[in-house]
């Protein structure tokens, strides 16, 4: 699909989705909350990592971020004003359990009480994500997600939050993008905790799969009629060139990364191709994999951003280059724009795994937005990105994919991990000097889409 072929008129797009389809926003705690040391919050691995010289592009931290901890009411009003029906946010584990386990921080829990109450009062349904990468530092000091004890720590944390909010929150998510956490944080070293060791990354993945199962059981025992999901990022993986070598590399990467989680979650254990690739690359040396239990999933959350083209440098597993194809349209992240990839990923997930429901839990684009002299933010490229992806989601829906919701990443410009504040994903612009929020043109466009669908 090109720009010209897709109708940016939100009314035409809205008609492709059934009434009751959820239109929302996604955010995460460390990226927006700030108040890093307030009301008894303990440090997380991101507080530590952000202080490593050179780790963050602009040398910044999430100490203040969007100051959402104090401005959440205003932010909820913005979402309600746009017309959103759902709000997916995450809880900061070290805000409620400063040491990760044991001592409960009542003031931290009280914040999420207020946040959930305000979300409901704004007419939005909360979707609560328990883990968006900000592991308490106290637990990292004991090995973090590579230590099998994390299964118990995470389960106790899930039970604590669930027991507190069970009367108001029905939609729960255990993890956001567990593969990004495992690989970027433990094999590539570019995210917290900054390790570079594949065997550790695969231990982390194994423990995440175990922890998903035990935490789900804990949530179910606390929350009547809980709906449990996980947000997994599946981008469109494709061979860079139409050669046997690149095709094989793309298949291996997809198996060693995506199917590595999805196959176990859907009851199939680890995938053969991925096992072979990891073994060949030496990633499994000294690793004892468990037989991960099937995931308990009412819905699968899909985070989708781009196409990853895989080009093999040799026949060796993991001797690959992964990125955009040269000359393609890309966002400021250098991510190849691929709405057809979203449609194809949705179709493939439905065909391969048949989840009961799929919810798009993240989709969006970074561009270098500025407030224009007329006081507005003219982010036409983001509108085009969103329109094309929403149209692609509509095609998948028409083809029978049980898609029930779509969440833009993100409400606000925010702390974009190792890129700091240099990338703006929000539909609302944030001036970090004074925390002023300005709705971008894309926010108005999204509002018209939602209104037209009512
Ligand atoms: C996803 C993350 C989210 C945000 C977007 C751009 O991988 O889940 O926090 O950084 O990318």
Q: Number of DSSP strands?
A: 13
Into which percent range does the helicity of residues fall? 25-40%
N→C terminal distance: 26 Å
- Give start-end ranges of low-pLDDT stretches: 1-5
Q: Whole-number radius of gyration?
A: 21 Å
Number of helices: 15
The H/E string reads HEHHHEHHEHHEHHEEHHEEEHEHEEEH
Largest sheet: 8 strands, parallel, barrel
Q: Whole-number average pLDDT?
A: 97
Ions and ligands: beta-D-fucopyranose
Strand order of the largest sheet: 1-2-3-4-5-7-10-11
Label the structural class. alpha/beta
Shape: globular
Percent in strands:
15-25%
What features would you describe in this structure?
By secondary structure, this protein is of the alpha/beta class. 40% of the residues lie in helices and 15% in strands. It has helices at residues 10-14, 29-32, 45-49, 68-82, 93-96, 106-121, 137-140, 150-165, 178-186, 198-222, 244-265, 272-280, 339-353, 380-398, 441-453, and strands at residues 22-26, 86-90, 125-131, 171-176, 227-233, 236-239, 299-303, 307-312, 320-323, 358-362, 403-409, 428-431, 436-439. The strands form 3 sheets. The protein has an 8-stranded parallel beta barrel with strand order 1-2-3-4-5-7-10-11, surrounded by 4 helices. The protein has a 3-stranded mixed β-sheet with strand order 6-8-9. Helix 4 packs parallel to helix 6, helix 9 (178-186) runs antiparallel to helix 10 and helix 14 (380-398) packs parallel to helix 15 (441-453). The longest helix has 25 residues, at 198-222. The relative contact order is 0.15. Mean pLDDT is 97; it is low at 1-5. It binds beta-D-fucopyranose (FCB). Beta-D-fucopyranose (FCB) is lined by residues 28, 31, 176-177, 180, 233, 303, 362, 409, 416-417, 425.
